[in-house]
Write the structure tokens for this entry.
Amino acid sequence: MRRDDDFTREIEAHIALETDRLIAEGMSPAAAEDHARRRFGNVAQARERFYESRRVMWLEHVRQDVRDALRTLQQSPGFALVAVATLALGIGATTMVATGINAVFYQPPPVGAPHDLRTLAWTSPRRAFTGNLFRGTTFDTRRIESFPVDVCHAVQQRIPAWASIACWRVATEALTDTGLIRVHAVSGTYFATLGVRPLMGRAIAVSDDDPAAPLVAMARDPELLDRTIRIHSEVFTVVGIVPADFSGLAPMAPADVFVPYAADARFPTFQRNAWSESNIVGRLAPGVSPEAVRAETEVLVHQLIQAAPVKDAYDLPALFLQELSSRLEVVQHTMSRPLRLLAATVAILLTLTCANVGGLFFARGRARHKELATRLALGGPRRRVVQQLLTESLLLSAAGGILGIGVALALAPLLPRLLSDLGNTTALGLELRPNLQVLAVTALVTIACGLLSGWVPALSATRLDPAHALRQASGIVPPSRMRAGKAALTVQLALSLIVLVAAGLLARTMMNLRAVPLGYHPEGLIFVETSNPVGRPRAVVDETLAALQALPGVASATVSQWPIFNNALPRFPICVPDVLTAQSIDYSFVFPGFFDTWGVRFIAGRDIDDTTAPQVVVNETFVRQYLHGRNPLESSISFGTQGCPGRMAVPVVGVVADHIDRQRVEVIPSVYARYPRAGALYVTTYAVRAAGDEQALMPAMRRLIADRGIAPNRDVRRATEYRDSVMRQERLLAWLLAFFAVVALFIACLGIYGILAYAVNWRTPELGVRMALGAEPGRLRRMVLRESLLPVVTGLALGSAGTLILGKSVEGVLFGVQAGDPLTLALAAALLTIAALLASWLPARRATRLDPLLALK
Amino acid sequence: MSTRASRKSADRLTLLQGTLDVLILRTLVFGAQHGQGIARAIETQSSDALLVDHGSLYPALQRLEERGWIAAEWGTSDNNRKARFYTLTRQGRKQLVAETGKWRRLAAAITRILGPEEA
């Protein structure tokens, strides 16, 4: 870079040379130098232009532009407010979704140096299975992550390539008065291996592995420090608090409480089933090759199996080391659909936001044309003027971005509920706060939005002929500029239509879902699914039922194997009466009175009675599918595991109305038999119908279950809550889309109004001439309205095409309505057209209220 | 006196924007020259029809230097004064050819539109 004193010297040299020349031409030396200097002009100005060519100037310009932009925005606070609010919404929603995507797909678990950590998994050809683990998702679980606890210990002791090894497992769930807590049992090496430090108190240590050690626990809730908590019949002292974002290594079953591994055997839920005893996580020693460690560990596992064959091990398993992040696969699988949908919504919204703000810039353009023209006429370089306009849009989007982060923080609590595809409200063990990466995305989006929304309007605003723009009386709108404005308007309308149609489709889906009869009465019903250890005395079931019936406020209580709805579990082959049915039959064991309590209507026959006589009740669909017009009450079924006719012909004594747990499932043929009179089934569901407010009964029911040492599979739930939970995603999406649709509609109207007002203003003199020459006001009005029609029609056409593409992504969410539903599309288009016409009306009316004299001036 | 006396400065043409650059390049074809020499050369070669604004000459030189079309070095003038001498680079030579062609075409086009000189 050339220094400025060098430049000054050059100028001095020039003046000296010029003076020499003039003297040679016969001037006196004094006059010659004077002339040379005058001829050069303003030396200071030349130097200034030299500075300008340098980069320092650039910063100076930026500062000046920011100052100017702030002043300009201050002069039109309404414009700034609308623009910033729009941007805050758009950027905020984007940030929120980016937070979700980041948490689910990119965020490592909150542990120290996660890349050195590995979880162990195995497969064996004969153990390979595909399970239907989660409702609605078939998840391939060929890799199994649990081992006998002896394997964990052996790996820990014998392979030095592991710096450390920890055993852990999802131990149990227990009811407290306020809800369900999930407990992970962890070895004393667990927290040290993971590098997780307690927030308060101490971590579970190796000394706690001694079965004789006092029972301690760590919790996530800081309130619990130094208190005791009861898990089933054991009392634990909380000695430490884990960081709030650490919930163990099972994202779909996050822990509320950690207890020492030794305590697990004390829980009634504990089962000595060798291959599900322990998960293993280890930290690799520095510098070792993961593959070598894997091979070494595999050899050890094979030796252990051959030395003392473990029950259930079919073949020698192949061992895998998995990085911790891949443990999120299950979460990712479950969440990808709602996340994709949200991301698509947000992408549309963001484009809409930019188009809207761009439209606002256009709309405001008129007011500034004189100013811009003046600047250009005075010789302001076009680049500088564009730069200044861009500074304005960037400033606005920066403000929108900062507010957007606030919006995202406010919306963050909604995210788990939006993402939750499961029927429960358990917090996912994921950190859902925007972090640096997310904020970087936000910043990028902010800048891109600022550039996008400012660039085209800035270019077109400066592409004007200064003389033309300054002359107010020349009233013809340069067509190019109007074209750009109308293009923005078209995009706005197209996107608004897409959002509006999506909102409409979801609203109709909601209505359709609500209209589907469930076949039972969820109102006033609470229930809890529990697990009984094998060999548990039957007395527990009877006593619990009696205690529930005795609770004040209980109208009736009942016991069954499954809740009324059961559509995700194994089905038996049944002979009806001598033909083997397809296997898709629900089968459940129930107490007498079960149907009354759940509110299921009898179509024919009677309820199961309390006698030893074999008897079953079936549902309508069963009759329709299998009995083919025979009288159901004269039919019987048998269990056909060995072919038909099977064992034990059981007569059908009653038919109940079809019922479903939620709206999107087909009714499955169901068979209900008497709950065994001796012994207790492993899965047992208790249900209570309240006489009054069922919510008030929930703490009492939780306490009652916990007091009897019964292990719950889930929290005590209200049937209505369960019913609503399956619609939660649709409802939230519908609300979000409806909200965005209203915003979009509002801003699209602003855009239409702005652009038309702008056009009318430009044409004021022309309209004045027309009126002076006797044009009818009505015709003028129609002419102005026609102006708005083209972008509206084009926008709607484009939007309709867009909804077809959108349809693909929302199809899975819709119910009882097609993605290309013509009624929804027509309604949305009509709404937009009306809004567009209303927005055009004001400028059109103003056009015809002109005083021709004033207009021509 | 020189021809300057014979022409009133009102008759002289100010350079159109963008023309100064190509004229500078052209002047340097004959060899290294300093700023004042370049200005002088343009004026003489146009028979004093063009007036070079000395104030804008140097920013123009600076611009051309930054683009790599000319190079500069301090040297000594004929009458023993220190001056910054500019020379044409290879890139500058190419640029000159391109610009010259452009100007010729433009001038021809304008001449055609304006028609034969009127009396």
User: Anything to note?
Assistant: Residues 127-141, 421-427, 472-477 of chain A have pLDDT under 50 and may be disordered.
